[in-house]
Amino acid sequence: TQAPVNVTVTGAAGQIGYALLFRIASGQLLGPDTPVKLRLLEIPQAVKAAEGTAMELDDGAFPLLAGIDIFDDAKQAFSGTNVALLVGARPRSKGMERGDLLEANGGIFKPQGEAINAGAADDIRVLVVGNPANTNALIAQSHAPDVPADRFTAMTRLDHNRALAQLAKKLGVSVTDIKKLAIWGNHSASQYPSIQHAEVNGKNAAEAVNDQAWLADTFIPTVAKRGAAIIEARGLSSAASAASAAIDHVHTWVNGTPEGDWTSAAVVSDGSYGVPEGLISSFPVTAKNGKYEIVQGLEIDEFSRTRIDASVAELAEERDAVQKLGLV
Ligand code: NAX
Questions:
Q1: Mean pLDDT, consecutive 10-residue segments, the chain of 328 residues?
Q2: Furthest C-alpha separation in the chain
Q3: Which phi and psi (to 5°) does residue 82 adopt?
Q4: Which residues are annotated as catalytic?
Q5: If you ran DSSP here, which 8-state letter would residue 305 be given?
Q6: Which residues line ligand 1 (CB under 6 A)?
Q7: CB 53 within 8 A of CB 13
Q8: What is the CA radius of gyration of the chain?
Q9: How much is the pLDDT for 309?
Q10: Which of 28, 162, 231, 293 has the greatest CB tally within 10 Å of its CB?
């Protein structure tokens, strides 16, 4: 049998952590033949709660779960780790300015980037879920100079899955009938869920929808504001769907995208599509041989151009703000 893969999850005692850990333990992150060792990172006040979750994981008697260790120290939590899911972050509290939010998160993601740089395994792959995810990923990445930059990603797969579900509903088809949707830009309300290149049962999706007003006034805002709608309905933010998207993101990264399709992930820009080099922005991506690659050569129509530029401008502003704070 294979040696266990070390998976570090931060914010392990939180609500996404609670949904995520059981999916990992059951083998859905890396597949049914890969044993996993969990390394949970929490702040000291939440270690006890993480221990409770670990007790429940024990009680799941998962055949693939080779061990669980709990830490309140980043250096230890990331030591030897192969996959890092950075879920724990500082949420925006009432009256908090954006600068304060970025600074508070810099206090988390800078030392975590340093710890990854110092001790993670050579094949480390990092997914940042904790918000503001793209910029938190940028902060961590910039403090891990010895790790290839493309190992740092941020999650827009939940937005991608939300877009798939909305479009499938609108057209009365299954999500599996839809290919080549894409989320562009920031994981924020400015994101651009695009169906410009999407196909529904082989037909162009925009033609199948044939309703530009629905796209602009319903589809895009529904996807972009879904998080707020979940909070409104559930009284709590998205958790199981976010965990599910994190599983999808890593599973695709390791196992690849199917021929003739792509997915969405926030990856380090190489300057493609006018997105400034170095920003961690969402693109249509394929995964092959364990690497995410930006889909090249797509024609971008005027509507898409405006939307992409607006979201990327927000990312550039966030980067400038953390630069001023000395965090990147
Ligand atoms: P919770 O507040 O339930 O859990 C967060 C956990 O992180 C807490 O247990 C906390 O103690 C821990 N934590 C805080 N600082 C830490 C640190 N320095 N090291 C380790 N652990 C630390 O939040 P939850 O609902 O689980 O959401 C987690 C994050 O995901 C939030 O930032 C949230 O905004 C973000 N989300 C991102 C999404 C995405 O698509 N990218 C969607 C879902 C979610 O909103």
A1: 94 98 98 96 98 98 98 98 98 87 96 98 98 98 98 98 98 98 97 98 94 96 96 95 98 97 98 98 98 98 98 98 95
A2: 54
A3: -100, -35
A4: 187
A5: H
A6: 10-11, 13-17, 41-43, 46, 87-89, 91, 108, 129-131, 133, 155, 158, 187, 227, 237-239, 242
A7: yes
A8: 19
A9: 98
A10: 162
